[in-house]
Write a structure and sequence with these properties.
The protein is mostly beta strands. It has a single domain, classed as Alpha-Beta Plaits (2-Layer Sandwich), CATH 3.30.70. The protein is 10% helix and 34% strand. The chain has a five-stranded antiparallel sheet with strand order 1-4-5-6-7. Strands 2-3 form a two-stranded antiparallel sheet. One iron/sulfur cluster (SF4) binds next to α1.
């Protein structure tokens, strides 16, 4: 698994650089986030959860979302909407209330 950062959407807040437990993300000269060592990302999704503009997507394996699929997160208060986007354009939304997350 690995992430992709949409540089057009990134506002350079730096939150993802602080959230990554592997220190894998940095801000470049244009104040846009970029991953330093893509193959070292283990897909923990910490960077995605702190991004205020949903600029980070996680590529999913073919056995999870289908080849070429990616997942992003959009937050709505305590609700996390995990959105799986497939190359066909189809999207699946999985909503989790983060206050209840430890119940599962
Ligand atoms: S998914 Fe986790 S390991 Fe990968 S870049 Fe984001 S915070 Fe770092
Ligand atoms: S958290 Fe999102 S907006 Fe902030 S620097 Fe990272 S990718 Fe850019």
């Amino acid at each position: 698994m690995s992430i992709q950062i949409d540089k057009k959407t990134c506002i350079g807040c730096g939150r993802c650089t602080e959230a990554c437990p592997g220190n894998l993300i940095r801000l470049n000269e244009e104040k846009k986030a970029e991953i330093r060592i893509l193959e070292d990302c283990w897909g923990c999704t910490s960077c995605m959860k702190v991004c205020p503009v949903s600029a980070i997507s996680l590529f999913l394996g073919a056995d999870i979302g289908g080849a070429g699929s990616a997942m992003r997160i959009e937050k709505d208060g305590d609700l996390y909407n995990w959105i799986v986007h497939r190359p066909s354009g189809e999207e699946t939304v999985i909503t989790v209330n983060r206050k209840n997350a430890n119940q599962y």
